[in-house]
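Treating backbone geometry as a discrete language has practical consequences that deserve illustration. The sequence in question and its structure tokens are set out directly beneath this paragraph.
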Amino acid sequence: GLPAALPALPLELTVLYNSLLFTVGASDSVVKGEEEGIRQGLLRVLEACGACGQDLGIEELWQKVLQEVTMEELQAPLHRLGALQAAWWLAAGRLGSVTGLFQLLSTAEDPGRAHCSEGQNKLLSVIKAWQVPPEEASLPLVQSAKDLKEILYTAAAFLQGLQELEAGNFPTALSLLQEAAGGFCSKKILAQIYTCLGCCAQRMDKPQTALQHLKRALQVDFQCLPALSHAAAVYHKLGETDAELQALTLLYEALGKNPLAAASCSPYFLMRTELLVHTPVLTSLLRRHHPSEVKYLLAQRCLQDGRVADAVEHYLDFLSLLQEGLQQQVPLDGSSALPRIPEVFLEAASALEQAGRHQDAITVCEEVITRTTDLIPRVLRVEERLEQPECSSPGAELAGGLLSQKKESLCCLAWRAAGYLHQGWAWAKLGESKEAVTQFSRERTSGACCLQVCVCLPVTENLRSEVEVLQKIRLLSLIGRGTQFLELGRHKEALLDFQHSLQISPGDPAAASYLVQALWKLNRKQEAAAQWHKFSQSSPGEDGQQQGQGRPLPLYLVYCLEQAVFPHSEPLARSIQDYLGAAAQHSSS
């Protein structure tokens, strides 16, 4: 409440500077409301000089103070307060305001010093050009302006590097992040900067450089686990499976341990770089994986690489985590590496089948079937009018909700059908052909009605992926049931299934080969030879063996696809060629 007095202002501004830093240190964050203290300090300066600035914004207020207040004894306190203001603006992402403020600070001392050379980063140039005011022994500071300048420089380089990284300007991002890495910060922040450098190099398609940066991050701070996660992703892209699995294993073990103290922040400062840099892109790059996500990645990679025994172990470990309330521990914002839980069960069943544990696979699939059956409506219509709901129309939200419900219903239908499909192949491997036929038939009755609707109507783009998976499952079930009919000597029924398979996927190599075999076993050798010639002259249909319309096949269906491959191509081809040769010789004689 005392009126502002020029002799007391240096002390008053220094106390304000120290108190704001103490507030930052106590809250461990740059509190937005505390910035008002700086504004009040500037108004006190103007009041002491007989001026007024109540109606000015904070940027205009700084401009007025620095241009009109020329007393030498106020320059150092004002400059320190200006650096503190820059910290608040950096934390808020107001980089342009920071640039303007430092230009004012430098121009106030030397009009030529704020010049930025061509090709230089303007913000970093003006921060570097700012001359730190000398400290006075009579006015002790809780954090020197020199240290604050270094922190601001590092934070500005880091923030701009992240902005350029997000914008896809990778060479510029790399240069700025490298500048930040050479700055003044804790080991924790330095490790984060190296992690971002690794991600940037990875996006520039420089995997070896990325690995060097990520290893450097771990050397600086061994608790920077996102670096280990990104390293596993780089190894995956390089196809170095052993290194990838080793990285994932280390990551899983580290996540399972009790967190230790954070990496050293020594020397400790009240205002630190980590308090000024917190952007969505950094949060995304440094997202800490839940142990269950890493366990799933281990299981998935092992299954993809054919390491069946390891895959089974990891999948069973993961399924046991479900009993610990996994859904409450994993983020539901789409950032998780986990697929939907029924898909994980089906992948586990696939691993168990490949390991020869067919009864266990049947049990796991029964869990999927039981849980999804009640979620599938009796009638599911896929209508073209739901394809592109207009956002501006009154019913857009309702139409979007209906589309989402139908998508979920199709997913449940696909999971249940895949469960029956896996059970069919498991029973086939156990030599129980009749039970296998039953399971393959249950898949057909569970999804055939919906599939007929989907095939007959123009399928909406939003549902196309789910429909293609259902069609692939139906194709594999028909082939599977047909093979078991052949095992049981029911060749006519097998022939019908293979014919239906080719209606779903014209030109499918497995269905075509089994069709020829069925005709051959029915002693319709001339038809078999004609069909064999027809399919051998044509290329596989668009559906192909691995993808539908260019979309990858779900991992839980890959093993079923492998089981459907016709295993007797060469013997059958020789038999047909012998038959054709004999027929030609007979006709010529």
